[in-house]
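Customer escalation, tier 2.

The customer says the design service returned an amino acid string that "doesn't look like it belongs to this structure." They asked us to rerun it and document both sides in this ticket. The original structure tokens are below, unchanged.
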């Protein structure tokens, strides 16, 4: 049996220092020291100046949620028209600013933000105003949140523009408030089969339930029976998609989680994440957008479906190079 080699305190400390120095020099080469790469998330529904949220607060909020690409949806310009409830719903009824504001933020943060295109449909020059920003690279029109019939001539001109530029539209469905005629919207899907529409907001999400008969109820809490108008539109029309943003989207997931899992499975290629929240937290229960991400992760039947909802479906539909 050999005698163990003994080290003085000075030799021990010197050797330890060399070991630590060598370890530090190789930190980048050691895989277990590297941070896991962030999974990209695309948020298709945010706004500039949303309820007075500053640009700095918006940027901080999106980063806190883990969003890697955000599409900013502008408002139309303020007008005293019936389509804006004579000014009451200017700014998408949320102080949202028009195209030029969304475009400016996207120019300031080109790696994180994109801009949409929008205008009040029945004002003179609406089509040319939207087209201006489509030519600048807007990947979407909307959100279309106006007090107007969904099949009116003015709205159809915008659908035709979307078809010409091959971009989707986001529509805010709210009974007796915005986009009238939800029960006959299928006719527009049939008339414009090359246009991809995304449904959003209270009336859209309330109607996942076959038993939703009182359209005045915007946030139903009951269990869901499959086969509602929304469920059928997603099933029957290849050009119908869903924007999962806002409290209405989160409520649709959480009011009946057993149904939600089947719904996500059934429409996994049609559902796209958006936040549409104006808080400053960006995380936890104070942030509806973060709560929606958490619900998608919890309720998705598989990791593959989760990635579709949070990233892949948006990238494909909006033709994003991110």
């Amino acid at each position: 049996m050999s005698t163990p080699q003994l080290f003085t305190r000075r030799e021990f400390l010197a050797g330890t220092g060399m070991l630590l120095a060598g370890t530090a020099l190789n930190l980048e080469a050691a895989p277990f020291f590297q941070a896991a790469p962030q999974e990209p998330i695309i948020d298709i529904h945010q706004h500039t100046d949303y309820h007075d949220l500053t640009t700095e607060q918006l940027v901080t909020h999106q980063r806190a949620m883990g969003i890697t690409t955000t599409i900013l949806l502008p408002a139309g310009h303020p007008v005293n028209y019936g389509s804006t409830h004579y000014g009451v719903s200017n700014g998408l009824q949320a102080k949202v600013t028009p195209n030029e504001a969304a475009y400016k933020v996207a120019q300031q943060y080109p790696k994180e933000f994109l801009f949409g295109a929008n205008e009040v449909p029945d004002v003179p020059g609406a089509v040319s105003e939207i087209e201006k920003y489509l030519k600048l690279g807007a990947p979407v029109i909307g959100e279309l949140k106006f007090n107007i019939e969904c099949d009116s001539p003015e709205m159809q001109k915008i659908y035709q523009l979307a078809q010409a530029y091959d971009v989707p539209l986001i529509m805010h469905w709210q009974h007796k408030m915005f986009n009238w005629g939800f029960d006959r919207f299928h006719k527009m899907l049939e008339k414009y089969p090359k246009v991809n529409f995304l449904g959003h907001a209270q009336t859209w999400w309330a109607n996942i339930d076959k038993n939703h008969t009182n359209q005045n109820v915007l946030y139903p809490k009951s269990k869901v029976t499959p086969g509602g108008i929304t469920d059928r539109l997603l099933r029957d029309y290849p050009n119908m998609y869903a924007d999962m943003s806002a409290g209405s989207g989160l409520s649709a997931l959480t009011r009946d989680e057993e149904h939600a899992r089947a719904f996500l499975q059934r429409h996994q290629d049609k559902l796209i994440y958006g936040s549409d929240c104006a808080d400053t937290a960006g995380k936890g229960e104070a942030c509806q957008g973060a709560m929606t991400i958490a619900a998608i992760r919890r309720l998705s039947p598989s990791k593959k479906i989760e990635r579709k909802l949070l990233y892949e479906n948006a990238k494909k539909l909006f033709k994003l190079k991110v």
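Tier 2 assessment: The sequence is consistent with the input. The domain at 36-317 is CATH 3.20.20.140 (TIM Barrel). The longest helix spans residues 9-25. Sent an explanation to the customer and offered a walkthrough call.
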